[in-house]
Amino acid sequence: MIVFLGVFVFTAVVIALVAMILVARRALVPSGPVHLEINESKKLTIPAGGKLLNALADNGIFVSSACGGGGTCAQCIVRVIEGGGDILDTEKGHINRKEAKEGYRLSCQVAVKQDMKLEVPPEVFETKKWECTVRSNRNVATFIKELILELPAGEEVGFKAGGYIQIEAPPHVVHYKDFDIEEEFRGDWDTYNVWRYTSTVDEQVIRAYSMAN
């Protein structure tokens, strides 16, 4: 009888804890579709969760973000007219009080939890995403490379001084010993034994790089 009662109590406690977790998850974790209205014209329906910057990019709207969504470059500013919650402490160093009152936010810090109305710079809709071919990636200094990409046929980049591109790299494992380094820079690589390193990236990363004509 005592054993049966112990099993019953243990089972009841486990069921109660699971029920509490499910209730808390439903209350705290966003779920279901979220509706975005952008510049009073474009409308999107996206799943809840994640950050606004990534959600826009997944739908072909590429807001500038030189730091790749790290919250440090302050280039991904958009205006959140409705929804979006309160501004975060990580944003206050880049957005003053007046801008915050007007709804300006770092899109990389805005969680997609509720319906929102947004205003983004018009030029964002002109930004394109290409899958390019690497023509060369040679060293021009010991630890500096010149990357040359081949654009898809018929495409071109309108180069302007100070311009940059964002490069999206998939998950990968790269061994530095496999790099083809120019002879004039090999001595430094040998001195610092750079060849011993391995780069392991488990998730997609985005970084910005300056362009040269």
Roughly how many Å apart are the termini? Answer: 84 Å
Helix and strand sequence: HEEHEHHEEEEEEHEE
Q: Do you know the CATH topology of the largest domain?
A: Ubiquitin-like (UB roll)
> Share of helix among residues?
10-25%
How does this structure look, described?
The protein has 213 residues and is an alpha+beta fold. It folds into two domains: 33-126, Ubiquitin-like (UB roll); 133-210, Elongation Factor Tu (Ef-tu), domain 3 (Beta Barrel), CATH 2.40.30. 24% of the residues lie in helices and 29% in strands. The strands form four sheets. A five-stranded mixed beta sheet has the order 2-1-5-3-4. A two-stranded antiparallel sheet has the order 6-7. A hairpin with a 3-residue loop joins strand 1 and strand 2. It is extended, with a radius of gyration of 24 Å.
Could you write a compact summary of the structure shown?
By secondary structure, this protein is an alpha+beta fold. It is built from five helices and eleven strands, in the order H-E-E-H-E-H-H-E-E-E-E-E-E-H-E-E.
List the helices and strands and how they pair.
Layout: H1 2-28, E1 33-38, E2 42-47, H2 52-58, E3 77-82, H3 89-92, H4 97-101, E4 104-106, E5 116-119, E6 133-141, E7 144-150, E8 164-169, E9 172-175, H5 183-191, E10 198-201, E11 205-210
Parallel strand pairs: 1-5
Antiparallel strand pairs: 1-2, 3-4, 3-5, 6-7, 8-11, 9-10
